[in-house]
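Researcher: Go.
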Amino acid sequence: MKFSNQLTVWYLHNKRDLPWRATKNPYYIWLSEIILQQTRVDQGMAYYFKFVEQFPSIFDLAAASEETVLKLWQGLGYYSRARNLHFSAKYVVNELQGEFPSKYKELLNLKGVGDYTASAIASICFNEPTAVVDGNVYRVLSRYFGIDTPINSSNGIKEFKQLAQALINTKIPGTHNQAVMEFGATVCKPQNADCNNCPLNNSCVALSKSIIKTLPVKEKKLKIRKRYFNYLVIKTKNKTTQLVKREKGIWLNMYQFPLVETDKPINQQELIEHSTFNELVDFNTVTIKLHTKSVKPHKLSHQHIYTKFWIIETPNSLKFRHSWSDIKKYPVPVLIDNFLNEFNYN
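Model: Structure:
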């Protein structure tokens, strides 16, 4: 109880003024938690305001098209979050008559909601004593108690969840959970932890043993996969181009230029010999140039994507129906959005 009390007092005096802390509406809490998965608060804040403005209720979100939701989400990454958010909104409206689930176990039925998100909503909105365990909580608990069990191992996940549950203040579980997370985000940080001003520095095992920088422990990461994307950017005399909808993998249901994916970098000759290129255009009627020779990887959690944009100018515009003037209306991956922002297609 001492652990919880100290952090709660600290939290009440030092918490950041965040918009979702001014409400217990489960729709808004759920929205904020989904946005903040894999996203920093400073980046996610703008998206939270955009979603609340455009979809003030879960009914508004459920009534929107998936394309509209993806477009609003554009640039935030991990797009499965947006698709799951939209799917679950429709589920709540259509199957639960708009009544948001109020129990931890019921919340787990929402697509895209796991233990952490269900615990956060249940404790903050409905006062259910279910402990949250996220990256901040792992870090605080591993350091304070000196635990070196890998946090991404099955044993570690179980051990830290049990410990977090044992520590929770059952009278104010929502405040307790937010206190531990806020403390990890602002004081017990991954780098440069503020141990001098830590309210727990007299009883922290990691500090007493000078092992702050070695905790928490993570098992070795998966090997990074390298992928090579060659986008075929059609540019016709009538200012049209071609977009296609992704049907699998990353960026599902978002739009992109026709894609040639290879297992290594390719040159122009190799490109024009590829079947996808020949199905799209007649080599004898087009001119080809590379947008830029420098290729910087687009880094995702377990893969690096090396992208080239091949500009293909053709007089034939009959089969290319997307107007350049409308292209910004479509939800696209951020690397394509960056290209569009710098490319002169007039």
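Model: Residues 225-342 form a domain with the Nucleoside Triphosphate Pyrophosphohydrolase fold (CATH 3.90.79.10).
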